[in-house]
Amino acid sequence: MVVAASMKIEKIREDIELPIIDLLSPDRSEKIVKACEEYGFFKVINHGVPQEITTRMEEEAHVFFSKPGSDKLRAGPPNPFGYGFKNIGLNGDKGDVEYLLLPTNSPRHHFFSHFSKFISSDPNKFRCAVGEYVAAVRQLASEIVSMIGEGLKLEGDGAKVLSGLINEPNSDSLLRLNHYPCCSGESTESSSNKIGFGEHTDPQILTILRSNDVQGLQISLEDGVWVPVTPYPHSAFCVNVGDVLQVMTNGRFLSVKHRAVVNSYKTRTSMAYFAAPPLNATVSCLPGLAAAPLYRSFTWAEYKKATYARRLGDNTRLNLFKLLPPHNE
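The chain above was modelled as a monomer; its predicted structure follows.
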């Protein structure tokens, strides 16, 4: 199917399915590496995250997003955590989405003590739901990057670098709850490609995404071509490579552009855990992976600053950190 979006012709390919990887299978590490190289995205099942923990977090998200708009605004604007509506970031990006950005390094974070009362009528229940969910998906992210280390045949400290960054108590990871309204009342033609969250790559190491049974996520494996990601199976988490992981694998893994479009008939809710290093952590090619790094070393704080200084769809930021090839004398 071909559609026109913002004066740009786009092709929608529905013949591609993301790999579904069973984390209990003996060849899981090799399959994860292959998926990261070919798609930058994959789904995982038998992931060990208890369904009741996910359900509690989804219920808390539903309760919050069901509140009147005036009540939700009391939990914002995001600075950097809190409630946002339509405005994405500080550089003019907009989308048909409302969201709640939450810290992940401690349920005792000052954000919760100041804003939980505006998010939930039972702040302690909300904090507990967030804490349990974050602990579970952080563990999942840590296990996945450990499997990546196995699949890449990393040895010694190299195999532990990624999980160490994610598990640091002062990691800069965050949790974003998203709510996309449906386009009821609009024509199918006008709403089929309405943007909820515009095209971008995730700057962090890895993203663990959970959504309800409503389709909306699309990934771009080539310019102008978008692949819808089905919500099947419901028990799965969707995982994608971030910019930092692309750098640390020396470009072997792909941080792929993706976006969220609004469904014509149903609202969509998603929960994204962005696994990030501490601000002062150095990002560089993993030891033993490449003789000639493609990117210079930098801190996460440096890259984060470069990311948030640009528009959402500006995917050139990694070029700022590329090493120039040596000149032939």
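Residues 123-151 form the longest helix (29 residues).
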